[in-house]
Design goal:
217 residues, 2 domains, 5-stranded antiparallel β-sheet, 5 helices, 10 strands
Length: 217
């Protein structure tokens, strides 16, 4: 008989924990109803406290799962994007960015180089032993100039890839580290290479969480 496979991704694990705690909360609610019918104040109080604790933990697990939504796992060197460039003018390029899930978008960048940044979250050793892998999320795509004066004076071309609004684990860990004791570090990682007409690049994240960019044939 095959053993039941346990969820291995942080998102799936948190959802499973949240659902299990919610089901336990339903059992506690049934016990509370029975205690009310039996008119036993001591048992009513204990069942009510248990219900509040279980529901609170279930809500916390599901909120953290929501904050993890959109992050990918780092189980080896993981391809995170491919970029293809077309020159539009002096220092102006159109770039097509493709992600492993099939999502594709086009952006305009001004500069000599392109730069891709990502958010990375790594776990405490005990969480890693439990099977949690580091997770990442693409953050922004931007252009940069070699000349420092032009970099200071020229208009910046920066595109948000993470999306605004909603819960985000990286932001929560940065602002409220005490709330997330299982998070070890959260940091940004970036890679940049020159923009050229017809150039294509692959960007990967190493298991240590560093972005690596390589030209494609």
């Amino acid at each position: 008989m095959d053993m039941l496979a346990l969820p291995t991704s942080p998102f799936a694990l948190l959802v499973a924990v949240g659902v299990a705690l919610a089901l336990a909360g339903l059992a506690a609610l049934a016990g509370l109803v029975r205690a009310l019918r039996a008119r036993r104040p001591g048992r009513v109080l204990s069942r009510l406290l248990l219900l509040l604790v279980l529901d609170g933990l279930a809500l916390l697990a599901l909120v953290l799962a929501l904050a993890l939504h959109g992050y990918g796992r780092l189980t080896g060197e993981t391809p995170v994007a491919e970029l293809a460039f077309s020159r539009l003018g002096d220092g102006l390029y159109e770039v097509e960015l493709k992600q492993p899930d099939g999502a594709s978008a086009r952006y305009r960048l001004a500069g000599d180089d392109w730069q891709l940044d990502a958010r990375v979250v790594k776990w405490r050793p005990w969480a890693v032993l439990a099977g949690l892998d580091p997770v990442y999320r693409l953050d922004r795509l931007s252009g940069r100039w070699h000349d420092l004066e032009r970099e200071r004076a020229a208009d910046r071309s920066v595109h948000d890839l993470a999306g605004a609004g909603g819960l985000d684990l990286w932001s929560l860990a940065s602002r409220h580290p005490r709330w997330l004791p299982f998070v070890d570090t959260e940091y940004g990682s970036g890679a940049y290479l020159p923009m050229r007409d017809g150039a294509r690049y692959q960007v990967s994240l190493s298991p240590l969480g560093g972005l690596v960019a390589r030209p494609l044939p």
